[in-house]
Amino acid sequence: xxxxxxxxxxxxxxxxxxxxxxxxxxxxxxxxxxxxxxxxxxxxxxxxxxxxxxxxxxxxxxxxxxxxxxxxxxxxxxxxxxxxxxxxxxxxxxxxxxxxxxxxxxxxxxxxxxxxxxxxxxxxxxxxxxxxxxxxxxxxxxxxxxxxxxxxxxxxxxxxxxxxxxxxxxxxxxxxxxxxxxxxxxxxxxxxxxxxxxxxxxxxxxxxxxxxxxxxxxxxxxxxxxxxxxxxxxxxxxxxxxxxxxxxxxxxxxxxxxxxxxxxxxxxxxxxxxxxxxxxxxxxxxxxxxxxxxxxxxxxxxxxxxxxxxxxxxxxxxxxxxxxxxxxxxxxxxxxxxxxxxxxxxxxxxxxxxxxxxxxxxxxxxxxxxxxxxxxxxxxxxxxxx
Length: 386
Hints:
The protein is α/β, with parallel strands linked by helices. The protein is built from 15 helices and twelve strands.
């Protein structure tokens, strides 16, 4: 892939999370239906970083749910296993953390307190949970206690708060530190913003000043230069990248180079993008079988071809592929010499949407910030990592 100059800064140290050292301070954000073993392998082939498994529920893991087990699949070359865990019951979270350490050999556990999906927040989960400071502390303490004998670091991810009138991130950072977490990741948006608007990097900087543990910044990292600016502006120890890598796994190559102080930004031709698409589809088929792998690949087509001249009929056909042979035949009709659409550089990718007028919460949830919350349904398989 050809390159161009990108903003640079002096080489940055790697990321240290307890006993775990990551050569490049870059973390792949868990994304439901995206960051499976095949995608993590694809991204890891581009550059060093910490590549986190799709979010799983603690209750599902403890109770032996087959769907949860099916998500805990790792590539044969995945030497550092990282999993994001969702849970609202401290005992279940602790038991799940122990299972991950003892039976799955994970090297890192991240706890999700950032999901903005209404079906999660209406039960007090995800980004709503940090409002209950006591419950947050209890969950974190159980997870850390379970993982400590295995020398596995526990981190948490959260948002600024429920909305601008109910901010939780500074309290969450203090509680994470007191509970023994190795780091905290902050998405610079509130739950009410979801994925709309602009991420508040100043909040990330405020959290850095507020705690002694490493803070990872998340939000609006579309290019490698954005990551460097975030670290320089906020003092964050590293970055968490989600939507920016959709259809662009080579972003991790750019990030690794940028944090080494090198001048590089990948601008692949359509032919090089086609090769990446083929590699992605092949890895999915290896892990899931050809029929399911091709079906899973369909959702990525729009992201890979964003900005390219491929017509509507071609895109529709690619969105229906069921075999690798069909995929190859369609891709062969594209112009491999077409240059990368530079207009897409720095442009948002994936879902954006509009801010929510109100966040759906349990009745009376905001009345008491120190309560234990309520019984919460952990059926959150289709939600994001925040």
